[in-house]
Amino acid sequence: MNQDLSILHLVLNASVVVQLVMLLLVVISVSSWAAIFRKLFAINRVKTLNDEFERDFWSGTSLNDLFAAAAKNARGSGPMERIFASGMREYQKLREKRIADTSTLMDGARRAMRASFQREMDVVETNLSLLASVGSVSPYVGLFGTVWGIMHSFTGLASLQQVTLATVAPGIAEALVSTAIGLFAAIPAVVAYNRFARDIDRIAIKLETFIEEFSNILQRNVGAQSASGQ
Question: Are residues 7 and 130 in contact, defined by beta-carbon separation less than 8 angstroms?
């Protein structure tokens, strides 16, 4: 008699422990895919907003006009624009206090931008740890379900006088489904993690480069203002 070895039949006839492991892996996989899509949209939005602000920054618009626009568009701004705003805000505060020392002005602006940079990177890296955990743990969870299912299968065969491949195959097959689900959850998470980590590194490099370029512009402005004041 032919036995039904379809995936659905194997899942429904697996032991309770294996079924719980499969259910856990399905929940993990769904959470992982949701995190992947959220992160994909978030990173694309960050790239778009950074590119738009960078074009405005190098278009010749004055720093004061850019700062005023950033203050009005605080909620819709990107990481680069918020870093710029934090540097300008600290720079203007120090100027209002009649601080004319170039190193003091630049140190204050740089510290403000570095602090803003760290906050922005913390936000951009959200959910990466989840994907890393799913990619590394899911195969082992699936393997646990497989080992348990095989143990349960062989325990049931102990009472049989004659063991054939037909009696062994269903139990082993339903146990291996657990490993397959674990790999199904892990592989996309690993691929997405590597892709997002590479994209985030590029975003970080771009932001750090902007901080240095903006610091140089501020320093030239301080020098020009000092020369005109003299």
Answer: no
Quick one: DSSP state of residue 61? -
| Cα–Cα distance measured from residue 49 to residue 56, given in angstroms and rounded to the nearest whole number | 11
**Residue 127 backbone class (left: φ over 0; alpha: ψ -120 to 50; beta: rest):** left
Distances (CA, A) of 87 to 73, 97, 126, 152: 16, 16, 24, 64
- Alpha carbons within 13 A on the beta-carbon side of 107: 6
In angstroms, the CA 60 to CA 67 distance is 13
- 86: Cα within 13 Å, side-chain hemisphere: 21
Q: Tell me the per-residue pLDDT of 118-170, one tens digit each, with 9 for 90 and over.
A: 999 999 998 899 999 999 999 999 888 888 877 777 776 666 556 555 556 66
User: Is residue 160 helix, strand or coil?
Assistant: coil
Show the tokens assigned to 103: 């190193």
